């Protein structure tokens, strides 16, 4: 089971106030292909067929951390949009977003394409699944680097840098889990 | 309010060290030094959370934190409303 902790994993600071366009760019890390929701669901779903306890632990723990990252991204989006009026949405060329949702969040990428389970994969083969996870971390790292280039807000940049760094650490740990799984499979001589 | 944020930041710092150690120990379960660090920070976290919760209400749901009267769980700010 999971227990909710009423705090953010990392302090979110929006320094420059409302910025609807930036919120729209960030949306892809909420409900986009390489976003935090995709990450959490990908890892937690792969746990059931992964063979070693190291990998079971890692998928559980990184999957859980990704849920905390979902909350960091939504906090950024919320704080960038909470004071916006219909006029602000129109001025940012986001009247079409306002028409459907006002300020509500939704699981989609920055272009409004809704989240889909096809963003994630699971094949039971532990080598395949861990490679998928490592690739996912690199894709998310690249997206965070793009996002950092898209904003001048120092607070938002700081939070995005934290999230980018987590992708690097997760990639490293998944690589170690892959080595452990490979050693395990070699001793079992499955072929 | 300021004191609450200082305590919250301390909890975030210690919890971050523990998150890092948790993931590291998942792939290095026999690293005794890392495990000692983990247990040491875990003690620190327990004390920090106790002082936070005594002053500002529960951090955890489902009975993992006690609550004074009236039900303090509902108090603002919620995490996404927090101004750091």
From TrEMBL, chain A:
Its cofactor is Ca(2+); Mn(2+). Belongs to the manganese catalase family. Binds 1 Ca(2+) ion per subunit. Binds 2 manganese ions per subunit. InterPro entries: Ferritin-like, Ferritin-like_SF, Mn_catalase, Mn_catalase_dom. Mn(2+) 2 binds at residue 66. Keywords: Calcium, Capsid protein, Manganese, Metal-binding, Virion. Mn(2+) 1 binds at residues 36, 69, 137, 170. The keyword Ribosomal protein does not apply. The keyword Acetylation does not apply. This is Spore coat protein JC. Gene3D superfamilies: 1.20.1260.10. One of its GO terms (molecular function) is metal ion binding. It comes from Natronincola peptidivorans. Ca(2+) binds at residue 61.
TrEMBL record, chain B:
It comes from the Bacteria. InterPro entries: CotJB_dom (IPR024207), Spore_coat_assembly_CotJB (IPR016571). It holds the Pfam family CotJB. Residues 7-81 form the Protein CotJB domain. Keywords: Capsid protein, Virion. This is Spore coat protein JB. It comes from Natronincola peptidivorans.
């Amino acid at each position: 089971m999971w227990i909710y902790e009423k705090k953010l994993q990392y302090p979110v600071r929006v320094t420059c106030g409302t910025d609807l366009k930036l919120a729209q760019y960030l949306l892809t890390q909420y409900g986009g292909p390489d976003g935090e929701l995709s990450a959490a669901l990908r890892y937690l779903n792969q746990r059931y067929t992964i063979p070693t306890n190291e990998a079971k632990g890692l998928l559980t723990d990184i999957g859980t951390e990704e849920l905390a990252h979902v909350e960091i991204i939504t906090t950024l989006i919320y704080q960038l949009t909470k004071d916006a009026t219909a006029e602000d949405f129109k001025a940012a060329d986001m009247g079409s977003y306002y028409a459907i949702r006002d300020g509500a969040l939704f699981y989609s990428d920055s272009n409004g394409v809704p989240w889909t389970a096809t963003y994630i994969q699971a094949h039971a083969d532990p080598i395949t699944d861990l490679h998928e996870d490592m690739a996912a971390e690199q894709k998310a790292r690249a997206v965070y680097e793009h996002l950092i280039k898209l904003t001048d807000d120092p607070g938002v940049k700081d939070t995005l840098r934290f999230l980018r760094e987590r992708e690097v650490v997760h990639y490293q740990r998944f690589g170690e889990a892959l080595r452990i799984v490979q050693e395990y499979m070699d001793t079992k001589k499955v072929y | 309010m300021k004191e609450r944020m200082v305590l919250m930041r301390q909890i975030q710092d210690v919890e971050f060290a523990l998150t890092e150690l948790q993931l590291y120990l998942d792939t290095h379960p026999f690293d005794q030094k890392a495990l000692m660090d983990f247990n040491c920070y875990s003690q620190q976290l327990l004390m920090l959370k106790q002082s936070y919760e005594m002053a500002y209400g529960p951090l955890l749901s489902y009975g993992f934190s006690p609550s004074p009267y009236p039900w303090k769980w509902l108090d603002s700010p919620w995490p996404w409303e927090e101004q750091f």
